[in-house]
Here is the input.
Amino acid sequence: MSKTYYDPADLRKFGNITEWSEELGIKFFEYYNKVFEEGALTAREKSLIALAVSHVVKCPYCIDAYTKDGLQRGLTKEEMMEAVHAGAAIESGATLVHAVQMMNKVNKLDG
Amino acid sequence: MTKLKIQSLHKRESELANAKRQLEILSNGIFLNGGLPKFEAKIAETNQFPLKPNKLEIFQVNVGYMCNQVCSHCHVDAGPDRTEIMTIETMQQCLDVIKKTEAHTLDLTGGAPEMNPNFRWFVEEATKVGIKDFIVRSNLTIIRANKKYHDLPEFFKKHNVHVVSSMPHWTRGKTDRQRGDGVFDKSIKALQELNAIGYGMPNSNLKLDLVFNPTGAFLPGDQMSLEKEFKKALKEDYGIQFHNLFAITNLPISRFLDYLIASENYEDYMYSLVEAYNPSAVTNVMCTNTISVSWDGWLYDCDFNQMLGLKVASKVKHIKDYNEELLQNRNIITSQHCYGCTAGAGSSCQGSVI
Here is the structure.
């Protein structure tokens, strides 16, 4: 048993989740693969979105996977870092926008 | 990638300059302890072992390992310090074969093929044979490297040579990191010169294709999508046009193997190749329609086997004894590096195979 929570080699075993719940696993991967096909957005644009979200949800497996995916698609490090900032801005904005609630409360209690 | 070395593995006397050592690495480690299946076993799963040639289409001649660049991923380990150069006698033997081969494509590669002192003579003589598609793999910078090469675009045009050139990215940083400082700007200038005389223009018969190799330890993405990105960026930024982009996977041999090991990416890269294994790609893999000739006239299943010293498994092993019928009956020699040509959409000197 590993003594750490994350092992990079586990990413290769992602597909194994189907073994303990075949129907749901297969449906998930079908959905997953469909999502990343070219559509109204290009696969390249989706890869950047996935990279940004990977950081926001702080998934090390996803970060590894979508950094590699981005490189394979020819994304530059500048594009990748801007995508992460877009995710980070939303994440910090989501925290900061709650400050309005704090302000409302302060104003109500002590205004 | 790690900082670009300025000498070949040979010059540095690296153990990886030895093909046998490379093959040992590729057959041990994760392929020995059962972590990953050997290539032979993998293709046997779909009854594709032993791999046999299909119709011969491409006659590829490596006219020497000398090059003006020392690219970090080079499977040839080419560079200015390599002195292996095809002689005019061996070229003549190649011409004799070109006259009678069924192959429709002649593919000259190197090193920088233009650095062979008899390169122009060879091109002129080969053109007379009337081969359908005559490719020269030019690294582009050679055109700007020295005055004596400045007229190469016109020379190519005169002989209707199909120019195929490497360009790992549409940005300067990524290109120079793989191919050397200043390579991007010189390549752009050379491409503009080729465009100016008609190469790569829409509907032009003067074919100009680019080759994309990933700049690090990852596989190439979808060839068509990459081509779209390359065309858009090169047109918008530099007014450059070209015909097709070939996305080629870096095979884990020579300098790329050295890089993979030094950067501790070797195992992950091999896992990526094996995970992306596609049995459909095996059917059209380039060794099934190609013969590769080395600078000293030996025959190989492909340019990669040439660099690994794996001569064809046939009674006929040298250009002087060439016999196409006998050669076509051979078994193709494979090892774990072959996973590089069967990953995803497959990879060949002409890009994806499916």
